[in-house]
TrEMBL record:
SUPFAM superfamilies per the UniProt record, alphabetical: Homeodomain-like
GO-annotated molecular function: DNA-binding transcription factor activity; transcription cis-regulatory region binding
Protein species of origin: Oharaeibacter diazotrophicus
Pfam families for this protein: TetR_C_7, TetR_N
Sequence ranges of Pro residues compositional bias: 290-301
Record-given protein name: TetR family transcriptional regulator
Amino acid sequence: MVALSRFASKLRVSANVQSYVGVPNEPTTELRNQWVSVLTGNGSVSKCQAMTTRPPSRLPERRPAGRPPTLPDDERRARIHAAAETLFVEKGYAATSMDDVARACGMSKKTIYRLFDHKQSLFAAIVDEAIDGLPAHDLGEDASRLDGAALLGRVLLDLATMLLHPRRMAIARLVVAEGPQAPELAESLEARGIVRADAVLADALAALHRRGLIAGPVDDELRDILLGAVVGDLAFMVMAGLAAPPAADVLEARVARVLALVGPALFGRSRTRAGGAVRWRVRASRGRAPAPPGSPAPRGS
């Protein structure tokens, strides 16, 4: 019986080794016959036959060799921007550390510093992204068919829509609140946001002046007057939390009102008089803008 037990143990070990290396767990005919002949007469034949015909065990699947796929840097920057902007707005710029940003976006601080030198450069990149997509208007080649007032109205409306967007207003509110303690915020917003917006309007005014569609000098003061008249008080009300960002029809009415006031001076050749009152026709980018109460009525109304 001792020899029989040893022989059976060897057979089990052999079967287990075959299963581990992926060989079907079925002994050869010669080995099976030896096993059956040894165990004949002790009532264990059927049990041994059942052991030799069990299905092979399956090894756990292994992970493919090599590093897992990594994110491209553009996607990493986008995730870092989103996490940092949320923290800056909700928690504050000074109260947010780069460790907080790393935890929020699920990346290491080493990765963040590889893409951004310091927290100011991260905030500047957020401003760049928020201001990205400033309107560009092509005046075309034929100045005779160009409606200067309509073009200027489209530029002012596009700029107002972009600047008064809730996201830009949140960034501006952050700069106003923490600017005295972190002057780099105002520097970034001025250089990367306000200057770029001013340049869009300045380019449009200069192009209209070169083509003889605007009378009088075109300078920074005219640009500031126009942009301030359209967005100035509205931006203050939104940043102070006294009003929600204005709807599109409100902005269209504001642009129409501003051009109704300054249009006769800018586009002198296009104005007409009827009964001693100056009537000014302004078309916004979405069609004719609704005139606010007290503004001159368009011709033909």
